[in-house]
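User: I'm writing a tutorial on reading structure tokens. Could you give me a worked example: one chain, its sequence, then its tokens, then a sentence or two explaining what the tokens reveal?
Assistant: Sure. Here is the example chain.
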Amino acid sequence: MKARPLTPSETLGVEAGIYVPPRVLGDAPPPLRSLRLAAVVVIAGSIGATVVAVNVVPAAAHTWHVVSHQTDRALARVLGKAEVQTAELLSDLTADFAPVAEPTFIPPLH
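And here are its predicted structure tokens:
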């Protein structure tokens, strides 16, 4: 990237022997507080509108339930595979270290 010329305050820092990292054209200040606030308001408004729509409009509720059900199924499938793979990996790793002890039955106290 092309270097940007130093500002007067940066030039004074360089002359005083203070290291000032080079600025590039890609540097940008953080967004304004009002812009961040506007983004939060838009996100909160969209979540609120979704909640209202799902509870009021039957078609939106049906769509929400279908998407939610499909998402639950997909997550269960992915997490189930991950759980099986993790169990296989752990059994392979622990099989080399020590034999598995049988659980001891402790009778309940009366």
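What the tokens reveal: The radius of gyration is 30 Å. The first helix runs from residue 8 to 15.
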